[in-house]
Amino acid sequence: MKRKIVRLMLIGITALALAGCANLSEVIPPDRDEEVEETDKDEDEEKDDDEDDNDVTAADEEPEADNSFILARTPHSDVFYVCDDESITRIDRKELAEDTHTEGSDQYRLYSEEEYMMSILVGEGDGFLFFKDTVVVEFGSTARSVVYAVSEKDHKIYDIWQGSTDGMLDGCEFYNGRIYIDYIIGYDDSYKMLGEDIICYKYDKKSDSFVEEEPDASLESIVKTANDRGARIRRSENLCFAHMYDDCGYLPAVLDGELVLINPDKTLHHTSGLEEAYSAYYDSNHIFSIQRDYETYEGKAYVYDIASDELTEISDERGAESLLGKSGNKYYFSVSDPEVYGIGHNYIYEYDSDTGELNFIYDKTSIPGSSIIPGVEGFTVTEKNIYYIDFHDGDIIWKTVTLANPATPTVDLDLDREKRFDYGTFGYVSTSISCPDCGTDLIQAYSEYLILDGSISDHADVINEYLMGKAEEFNEIETTSYTIDTPCEDHQAHPTWYRVTNDYYVSDIDIICDNYLTVNMTGYWYGGGAHGMPYRGQYLFDLTTGEAKSFTDFYEGTEAEFKSLVAEKTKEDFLGYDLENYGSPYFSGDADVIYDDAYKYASLDGGTIEFTSDGIIFYYPPYEMGSYASGFIDIFISYDELLGRDSL
Predict the structure, then answer these.
(1) Are 78 and 201 part of one and the same domain?
(2) What is residue 138's predicted lDDT score, i.e. its pLDDT?
(3) What is the mean pLDDT of residues 275-304?
(4) Phi and psi for 642 in degrees, rounded to 5?
(5) Cα dist from 451 to 178, 339, 394, 422, whole Å
(6) Residue 319: C-alpha distances to residues 209, 376, 377, 435, 494 (Å)
(7) Under 8 Å CB-to-CB from 594, ≥6 apart: which residues?
(8) Does the pLDDT of residue 23 top 70, yes or no?
(9) Count of domains observed in the chain
(10) Contacts by residues 149-154 (CB-CB < 8 Å, ≥ 24 positions apart)
(11) What H or E segment, with its residue span, contains residue 98?
């Protein structure tokens, strides 16, 4: 779990540009009914029909079945794919952002070098891509949720909805020809939720805009019942309340710590044995949920039968880790069984609520250096197929398997392949230290290292010895009295409280300026509490000698000159933010304070420098110049400004 969090926070997704469409007729069989061709219309009648179509408003139309879906590694991925029955269309966020032609389009965060800064993709349909985001209203204090659409045809941006600064967007989905927004109205002084609202919009051809519509009255009645009783509605997957209500005939909600089902007649069905169901799927007859022991974080899968009020555990001895998807009455979940710490073996299961059968689908083992969770990452299930990210022949790829016969060989989709092993292979060092008395894992560390191919450099052996030594050095963790000397009853009762984990991954490899190899690393330390601490670093090698290099091997200026340059570039970065609309990642809102703080932190031997082909990135770790949520703050300085030349 932590590895996935680290990757989403710290590792940029590098995608190689391959062209746009691939035929899926064999992989994705057509679901739509064949349209009957009308041959008895003359040209004038067809022309009249076309003119009438242009005059029809959105409210007069019934939405057509939309079988399209999205493949994306994460909702922030810089490349994703819009799929239908016949084809896959590649969407590059950067190209999309550059091609928008709406006034003020630079305010929409379609693309950013920092992945976490991009708007979240929430859906696709009727020729639009839908995004949600949070916009700062007043720097350092208030923000509001926004939802907007981008036309797939001409990349025009459409403002759809903006929330108030008091409330918060709870869920958003394009469903049944409309974009539904589930909205938390606000909170009182004790942070108790004041209630929820449902807002929906539909595209209107005549006005070329999204027009608000009234939600279904019976759905609004159920939401009002939840609000009146002080209940918090739970959602299934990323479904909006309207979609859940159509599927289930009720809405699940938490009332006084208990999961209840609110029926159309406003009666409550009280469930037995279920927790608040933070992780659950719902249908008209069952609730499928993963419940965890919050001390060990071990999960088990349960199915709740609504009619009989019975809760049954359905996971095997491996337990359950993550809900992955739902197709009809079939539910999919994963569990990871580490072979050693840091190398996960991911098992994927299907549970059929109609037959009560639990079926093993497939398993995938993580590969050092691949930066993915194979078989789990990107998991998307449709009516006929499963899609997921995997690793094959040195590439990160998309695969698909049919639901009808998941035991058949998977099909590699002709999509972007992310090269990972162009420069060699990867090794790893894994360390686990357990309590000598009770056996509870107390310290765990994992570190990857590149094994450079000999064809890249005549000095590959020297480089490899250095990198492996650094990985072994990283895993030499000192034990502490806090973890080791604590009584065994505390270890066993609260194992996560006393466990320290330390992970270090290869995030990127490159050759810059022809002669220098860069190996970028990213890591995450966790020792309890709300979150751990991320970190990153880079190794630089001269390929002609095998020697490890540092910044001072190239920079000939003084420490004071370097500090001044970094401070000035940091101030420039701060002033480049749209403070009025988005604020900035910095603690301070004063440019002079930013300069002074940057000057204080900058150092020639501080280790927070990464080399690129045309300059360095000087970065500030979380809490140094900005909050934890701001992540690393990157400052680019060209070699011309730094060294007086255009390359290293």
Answers:
(1) yes
(2) 60
(3) 85
(4) -90, -45
(5) 51, 21, 14, 11
(6) 48, 16, 19, 24, 19
(7) 570, 571, 574, 586, 588, 625
(8) no
(9) 2
(10) 149/179, 149/203, 149/210, 150/96, 150/100, 150/110, 151/127, 152/82, 152/89, 152/124, 152/127, 152/128, 153/127, 154/101
(11) helix 93-99
Q: Kindly tell me if the per-residue pLDDT of 294 is higher than 90.
A: no
Residues spanned by the domain of 488? 424-643
Q: How far is CA 268 from the centre of its chain?
A: 35
Q: 């003020």: which residue's tokens?
A: 104
Mean pLDDT is lowest, of 16-30, 262-276, 531-545, for 16-30
Q: Is the pLDDT of residue 482 over 80?
A: no
As beta bridge partners, residue 130 has: 123, 149
Provide the sign of the torsion angle of the four alpha carbons 435, 441, 443, 448, taken in this order. positive
In a domain, 250, yes or no: no
Give Cα separations from 309 to 273, 276, 280, 331 (angstroms). 9, 16, 16, 19
Q: How far is CA 533 from the centre of its chain?
A: 19
Asked if 556 and 525 sit in the same domain, the reply is: yes
Cα gap 648→639, rounded to integer Å: 7
Residue 38 has pLDDT above 60, yes or no: no
Q: How many C-alpha atoms does 245 have within 13 Å on its Cβ side?
A: 23
DSSP, collapsed to helix, strand or coil, labels residue 257 as coil
* pLDDT tens, position by position, 140-196: 556 789 999 999 999 999 999 998 888 888 899 999 999 999 999 988 887 788 899
Q: What predicted TM-score, i.e. pTM, was given to this entire model?
A: 0.78
What region does 203 belong to: left with phi over 0, alpha with psi -120 to 50, or beta? beta
Task: Give me 220's structure tokens.
Answer: 């609004």
Determine the pLDDT at residue 581: 63
Strand partners, 405: none
**Do 554 and 411 fall within a single domain?**
no
Point out the least confidently predicted range of 387-391, 490-494, 563-567: 490-494
Do 474 and 601 lie in one domain? The reply is yes
Rounded CA separation 385/204 (Å): 33
